[in-house]
Structures are given as structure tokens and as C-alpha cells.
Design goal:
By secondary structure, the chain is α+β, with helices and mostly antiparallel strands. The protein has helices at about 25-45, 50-70, 300-310, 330-339, and strands at about 85, 95-105, 105-115, 125-130, 150-160, 165-175, 180-190, 195, 200, 215-220, 230, 235-245, 255-265, 270-275, 320-325, 325-330. The strands form four sheets. Strands 5, 6, 7, 8 and 10 form a five-stranded antiparallel β-sheet that branches. It has a five-stranded mixed β-sheet with strand order 9-14-13-12-11, with no helix packed on it. It has a four-stranded antiparallel β-sheet with strand order 1-2-3-4, with helices on one face. Helix 1 runs antiparallel to helix 2 (about 50-70). The protein is globular, with a radius of gyration of 28 Å. The chain starts with about 25 loop residues before the first helix and ends with a helix. The relative contact order is 0.08.
Length: about 350
């Protein structure tokens, strides 16, 4: 297991979620369940064998559902479950929990659930079943909670268009021994049922037929760490452009960031591709260059020293040292000799 980078995520609930809405008896019961869940959640990650991890995951899932059945559990934050992602949209209409389990070097499986807020505090839950391993093309598949593509989500962006709410999820998938993935997933609700994916991306394409894309997936080399984030100031999803370091674009595990950034801006119900996020360019001949104090021969250029000295401030070439009623300028090098 030491070869795997563990992706720990802990999120505080926002909006109306708080202890204040949970009666004392229910809060006490939830805390008791959380203590047991905390131990199991760590075993899912730290179990030394696949059997130990499977057992911990199975037991955790059963106990977690039991905890969520406690009335008003929607308002309980489960803060101690550090390996479980917990996200809530601005409208506080649901909570989404996700976590991962490393099966072996070649398979990582994600688990999760969506808990809906209910007026009476009862449980309405949609389990998330990861079907990515049996899906031919993840990028063009739209599915419900039983056809989920799987990811551990670390950011939720709520958007609105045409009287409907769209929830954009940024997620991480520790895919296999060769590559990781980051994903941009759109969650919507049709007749109260969750739907993952859809035609919510607009990319420029010179071809006559544009490629349909239900979600955006970045697959990259295991040791690479490309950024995928949301910038609220620019109101844009920003991510690093990837290239194959070996010139083999068909091999996703060779992809690394090249230092350029692309973006997605929300317009009329779609994330519209922005080719270059940062467009500022330095004029040729005006590039910032170092200003060394020494010349090519290693000699100190006194004019550069004087130009760097702030006006009306004493020179740092000497330090004033009081001696009785007099002040004697002592060179720095002489002070250093006396240390």
C-alpha cells in the first residue's frame, strides 16, 4: 500500500447544516455511530490486504447507512471521517458522500451516496454504484446513480440556467498503478432522480461533427500533479493542459502538464471552453532580467550598490556603534572579525 498516494479529503458542511437542528438524543446516537465509523474509514485506506480493505468497506457501508437512518442525520457533519468527502451545494438540497478503496495495483473502486434533505428529517438516500470498470467509453456515458462513473469529489459548483439547477463536481480517481484521473462531472435531478453527465460542455472543433462529451476526464502520469480547480474570482474552472512526454498521445499514462492553462466558463447552461486563461504576454526585448552586483570579471559595481540604496537612509556598508559619548563608524567586516 505504501506505493499509493492516499487522497485524504475532509470538508465542513455549509449552509443550514449544523448541530443546532439535531435534538440531543439523536446527536448522541450519531456521535456514537461516528466513533465506530472513524475506525473503519481508516481501515478502508490502511488495510494491508485486499481482504482487510474489503471487509472494512463492507462494514463501513452498512454502519453508515444505519447512522444516516437516524432522524435529522442530514444536519450532522461527520467531521472525524477524514477520508470521506462530504459536499453540500449552496441550496443545501442534498449531501454527497464519496470515498475510494484500492482493490489492487490495477483497480481502484469508488463508493458513495447522495442524501437528500427531507422536511421531516427522514432518510432519502441514493447509493452510488461505480460502473466505470465495465463502461466502454466513460466520457460519453450518461447514467443514474446505478451507472455512476466513480470519483472522490473535492469541489461542488452550483449553477443555474433556464430555471434549473446544475451541480458541477470536480473529482479525483486514483485509477491504477500507471495513471490517475481528474474529472469534471455534471449532476442534475430529473423528477427527483440523480443524473450524472450530459451535453453540458462546448469545445471548439474544426471537424464537421463535434465529439459528444458527457463529462471531462483528465488522465495523466501517476507522478504528475496537474491542477483542476475552480476560481471564484474569474468564475471559471481552470485546469492545466496535458501533453504526452513521450510523443505518444494514445498512451494517457504518459501525459504531463506543459505549464499552459485552459478554462471553462459557464454560459447559458454549458461550460464553454476557453483556450487560454492567462493571455498576458511579455513584449520581446522587455523581459525581466537579473541585475547582478558583480561584473563579468567578478568585480563589484559600486554604482549598482549606490543605485539600490534608498534615499536618506544610512549605508549598510557600515554600522554605527556607540562608544562612550562618540559614535564610531565600524566597517561590517571588522565587526564580523570580532564575533
Amino acid at each position: 500500500m505504501n506505493k499509493w498516494r492516499v487522497f485524504f479529503i475532509s470538508f465542513l458542511l455549509i449552509g443550514s447544516c449544523g448541530f443546532g437542528q439535531i435534538p440531543g438524543s439523536e446527536r448522541k446516537a450519531l456521535r456514537k455511530e461516528e466513533d465506530s465509523l472513524q475506525t473503519l474509514s481508516l481501515q478502508i485506506i490502511q488495510g494491508r490486504t485486499d481482504a482487510e480493505r474489503f471487509a472494512a468497506d463492507s462494514q463501513f457501508t452498512k454502519m453508515f447507512v444505519r447512522a444516516l437512518k437516524i432522524k435529522n442525520s442530514f444536519y450532522y457533519s461527520f467531521d472525524s471521517l477524514l477520508t470521506i468527502s462530504k459536499l453540500v451545494p449552496e441550496d443545501s438540497s442534498f449531501k454527497i458522500f464519496t470515498w475510494q478503496m484500492v482493490v489492487n495495483d490495477f483497480v481502484t473502486r469508488q463508493h458513495g451516496a447522495i442524501q437528500m434533505r427531507t422536511d421531516d428529517g427522514s432518510l432519502k438516500l441514493f447509493p452510488l454504484i461505480d460502473k466505470s470498470s465495465v463502461t466502454v467509453n466513460e466520457e460519453d456515458t450518461v447514467g443514474n446513480n446505478f451507472g455512476w462513473m466513480g470519483a472522490v469529489y473535492y469541489k461542488l459548483i452550483e449553477k443555474h440556467a433556464f430555471g434549473k439547477n446544475y451541480y458541477t463536481l470536480l473529482g479525483y480517481d486514483e485509477n491504477n498503478i500507471n495513471s490517475n484521473k481528474k474529472v469534471i462531472e455534471i449532476l442534475t435531478f430529473n423528477d427527483g432522480q440523480p443524473i450524472f453527465g450530459g451535453s453540458y460542455f462546448s469545445f471548439q472543433d474544426n471537424s464537421v461533427i463535434k465529439k459528444y462529451r458527457a463529462r471531462y476526464i483528465m488522465e495523466y502520469k501517476k507522478s504528475a500533479s496537474p491542477r483542476l480547480t475552480y476560481d471564484p474570482d474569474q468564475d471559471m474552472i481552470i485546469y492545466e493542459h496535458l501533453i504526452s512526454e513521450s510523443g505518444e498521445p494514445q498512451k494517457k499514462y504518459t501525459y504531463i502538464p506543459d505549464g499552459d492553462y485552459e478554462g471553462l466558463a459557464w454560459r447559458d447552461g454549458k461550460w464553454v471552453h476557453v483556450q487560454k486563461v492567462f493571455t498576458q504576454k511579455t513584449i520581446e526585448g522587455q523581459e525581466p532580467v537579473p541585475a547582478p552586483i558583480r561584473d563579468a570579471n567578478g568585480n563589484i559595481d559600486e554604482t549598482k550598490l549606490s543605485n539600490r540604496m534608498p534615499e536618506n537612509e544610512p549605508s549598510t556598508d557600515s554600522i554605527s556603534v556607540p562608544k562612550k559619548d562618540l559614535q564610531k563608524k565600524v566597517p561590517i567586516k571588522d565587526l564580523q572579525k570580532n564575533k
